[in-house]
Structure formats: C-alpha cells, structure tokens
Amino acid sequence: MESQNKVSMGGMDGLESREKEMKTANQRTAKSHELLARLLAFVLTFVATILFGLNKQTKVVPFQLTPTLPPINVPVSAKWHYLSAFVYFVASNAIACSYAALSILLLFTSKGENKILAKMIIFLDTLMVALVFSGNGAATAIALMGYKGNSHVQWKEVCSVFGKFCDRGAVAIGLSQLGALAFLLLVLMSSLSSNKRSSKY
Amino acid sequence: MASTDKPTDPEYNKEARPPPPATVNYFAFDVSLRVLLFAAAVTAVVVIVTSDQTKFIPMLGILRKAKFKHSPAFVYFVVAHCVAGLYSIITTLASLSVISKPNLSTKFLLHFAFWDVLILGLVASATGTAGGVAYVGLKGNNHVGWVKICNNYDKFCQHLAGSLAVSLFASFVLVLLVWLSVYSLHCRVPK
After folding, report:
1. Transmembrane region positions (chain B) (predicted)?
2. Can you say how many angstroms the Cα of residue B11 is from the centroid of all Cα atoms in its chain?
C-alpha cells in the first residue's frame, strides 16, 4: 500500500511540475493578451476623448431676416460642450481612459499575484463597460438627432451645416464603441481564465 | 468496497467540499437578482409604453401627440428592455436548474458572466440613449435651436423619467450579477 502510494506520489510530482510549467506559460500568454486588450481600451478611449474634445467648427451661415433685404452672414459655431450628452460622452471616455492607464500601471508593476487587486480591477472593468456604453448611447442618440432631426418635436437637423463636426463626432463615437468592446472583452477574458484554472483540478 | 471507499473519502472531502455550500448561497442570491432584473425591465417597458399623451397646443391651435415611437432612441430603449426581460426569464430558469443540479454550476457561471456583461452593455447604452434625448426634451438647447417639450407634455416626461430611473436600477442589478458570477468563478480557482 505504501509503495503504491510512493509510486503514485512520484508520478504525481512529475505530472505536477509539468502542469505547473504549462500553467505559468498559459498565465504568461493570458497576461500578454490582457495587456493587449487593456492597451487597446486605453488607446481607443484616449483617441475618442481627444478627437471629441478638440472638435469644433465655426461656419458663416447666410441668414435672411426679411425677404426684401439681402441675407446677413452670421458666424455660428458648434462645440462639443454645447450639448450635455456630448459632455457626458467626453467625461465617461476620459474616466475610462485614465482608469485603463492606471490599471495597466497597477497590474503590470505589482510583483507576483495580488488576488485582491485582480478582483478589484475586474469589478471596476465591469463598471467601465456600463459607463462607456451609456456614454456612447447618449452621444449616438444626440448625433442621430443631429443627422436626422425630429419632425414631431420640431428639432431640426444640424449636420447639413456642421458637416465636419458631425463626421468627426461619428468617428469618435465609433472608436469609443470599440473601446467599450475592449473593456467587455477584458471581463470575458478574466472569467474565462479563472474558469480554465478552476477546471484543471 | 466500504474499506476502499473510506481512505479516499476524507481527501475527497477536503478538496470538493468547500465550493458547494458557497455556490448554493450565491445561486439563491443570483436568482433573486435575476427576478429583480425581470421586474425592472418589465416596469421600464410598461411605464414608457403607457406614456403617450395628447395635448392641445395653444400656440399652434391644434392637438398634438407625444409618443415614444416618435423617437428612435426610445424605440431602442423599449427593444433593449424587452430583450433584457426575456433574457432574465431564461437565466432565472437556468439558475434555478443549477440549484437543483450543482455539478453544472461552473459551466453555467461562465455563460452567465458572458451574457450578463453583454446585456449590461445593451441596457446601459439604452439608458444613455434615452437619457440623452430626454434631457434635451427637458432642458432644450439654444445652440442648435431644439426647444424643450416637457413644459407641454408633463405626463409624457414624468413617465420617461420614471422609466429611466428603473432602467438605471436594472443596469445596477446587471453590474451586481456580473460581479457575482466573476466573484464565484474567482472563488473556484484553487489557492
């Protein structure tokens, strides 16, 4: 019985060491994937914030007071902080981008495995998914209103005047949407990796 | 048979025992959160669908209707919450089935984490979408010449506000659900 146990123990040791090697290798690739996704989230939200934050357009529009007089040229401008939905969009992206930078710093400078930190970061990732998605939703709704207008409440479309502003805004919203998907991917990756690690035993 | 079983039993117990009681607790919590999510989604849909209001506008001298269908943002909101409601029914049943068969729980937890986070994105974006449009309706915007409409359609706007609050609550519940699944998956990783 004892000898049997010893044999099985020896076999287990060999297996365990090999398994450990595989595990560390797996963890390394998982970590590099995570870094990639985090960097992607950071870059996308950063570019979206900058693109939208610097977005403004001034245009001279002929404005006719009365049909008899010649039209007066009035300069009008579109700025991102004129609409509260866009302010929310920029703020949510700025928060997400700074959080992504902070999480990269925290995760990849801490030595060894810090379980509490890892858990905290996954929890905050989930919050970021909600934040960035809702910011995108708000900005998309207002941008769509700018493109199409709404005849029922007499809100006129403004993108025919501010074409450049609208195009840039659309690009920023698209980038931010991809950034939100990167955050979503991070949550999925972490649950997948913990599932993998738990199913090995 | 009994003698061969006995030596393995204590070891087996050490490794396998800790998860089950914990998961049973978590799944009960999971089910109650999912039922809450269902209630929130249904409430949000019902409140926004019943928001239609017809009012006489003195300035134009005609009757005008305010409907949620007039804005694509609110249509998206309703569709997203219908999806979330259906999803919550299905996952409540799944979660209940896990309670009766605990050996499948890890697989289910992974699926829950996957889909919960997707539905969270859906509900959060729907809340943002409807909130953005509703805010313009409440305050108006001088810069682009969009006039506010909530001074005319008071009931419509109250319904919208209620629906948005419930939807915010639903996204909070979804965040909790994702946290719960991720946390219980993390707890299964051996130390």
Report:
1. 31-52, 73-100, 112-138, 159-182
2. 41
Kindly state the tokens that stand for A53.
Answer: 């934050």
Cβ–Cβ < 8 Å for A166, A147: yes
Based on the structure, what is the number of domains in chain B? 1
Q: Flag whether residue A134 sits within 8 Å of chain B, measured between CB atoms.
A: yes
Residue B62, domain member (yes or no): yes
Residues 6+ apart with CB under 8 A from B21: none
ipTM score of the complex? 0.81
Average pLDDT over residues A109-130: 84
Q: Which of A34-38, A135-139, B23-27, B151-155 has the lowest mean pLDDT?
A: B23-27
Distance from CA of A82 to the nearest CA of B (A): 7
Nearest to A167 by CA among A182, A146, A181: A146
Nearest to A52 by CA among A84, A18, A81, A21: A81
pTM of the model: 0.82
How many Cβ atoms sit within 10 Å of the Cβ of residue A200? 12
What residue of B is the nearest CA neighbor of A135? B128
Query: Do residue A197 and residue B132 have CB atoms under 8 angstroms apart?
Result: no
In this structure, the dihedral spanned by the alpha carbons of residues B67, B71, B72 and B73, taken in order and rounded to 10 degrees, is -100
CA of A171 vs chain B CAs: smallest distance (Å): 18
**Residue B19, pLDDT above cutoff 60:** no
Strands A56-63 and A72-79: antiparallel
Q: Token pair 């204590």 is at which residue?
A: B10
* Span A35-74, pLDDT tens digits: 899 999 999 999 999 998 888 888 787 776 677 777 777 7
Going by C-beta distance under 8 Å and a sequence separation of 6 or more, which residues neighbour residue B8? none
**B17 found inside a domain:** no
Token output for B88: 């919550």
In a domain, B13, yes or no: no
For helices A2-53 and A115-148, give the axis angle rounded to 10 degrees: 30
Indicate the pLDDT class of residue B191, thresholds 50, 70 and 90.
low
Structural domain for B54, as ranges: 23-188
- Condensed to tens digits (0 to 9), the pLDDT of residues B101-142 reads 877 777 888 888 889 999 999 999 999 999 999 999 898 888
In a domain, B4, yes or no: no
Helices (H) and strands (E) in chain B, counts: 5, 2
The closest of B179, B181, B174, B183 to B34, measured between CA atoms, is: B174
